[in-house]
Amino acid sequence: FEHMTDIIFEHEGTIDEFLGDAILAVFGAPRRRDNDPERAVRCALAMRDAMDTVNAANEAAGLPVLSQRIALNTGTVIAGNIGSEQRAKYGCVGHAMNVTSRIEGQTDTDEILIAAATRDHLPDGIFILGEPRELLAKGIEDAIVTYPVLGLAP
Which of 13, 88, 116, 153 is the most buried (most CB within 10 A)? Predict the structure, then answer.
């Protein structure tokens, strides 16, 4: 988590929460910027690249090699202190968060998969994307169109 947290903060992301072995990060909350989707994709690529360093350290320490799956989506959410009077925390909720979770559930090992909504907000020519893939997800009526992020364009 330490390496990934540093990368998220370097790309001006906000950590919503740690969920077991996962990190939920958002870009655009608490403050929205025009390049939130681009920074999120750049962050995902940096996180993927950092896994080599993490795994080299793990192997040297006799720990297991780790893999990751990264899913990105762009949409409107409710962000703020969420909960009740007894317990509240800063977080994000909404349909876009649910869609992101469904995408992550169908992302292959060591893959970065972005929703078409994210792709539509990226500047042209910066990233290399793979062929579109439609996902069917529980609780979501229409297929979710996604794209694997292969890297930065030369």
Answer: 13
* Model pTM above 0.85: yes
User: 114 to each of 32, 82, 127, how far by Cα in Å?
Assistant: 19, 26, 12
Radius of gyration from C-alpha coordinates of the chain? 16
Strand segments (E) across the chain: 14-19, 22-26, 70-72, 78-83, 88-93, 112-115, 127-129, 133-135, 144-152
Instruction: Mark 51-76 as b/e (b = at least 16 C-beta within 10 Å).
Output: beebeeeeeeeeeeeeebbbbbbbee
Specify the pLDDT at position 146: 98
pLDDT at position 61, please? 96
End-to-end CA distance of the chain: 30
Calpha distance 96→99 (Å, rounded) = 5
Burial of 26 (0-12, 13-18, 19+ CB in 10 A): buried
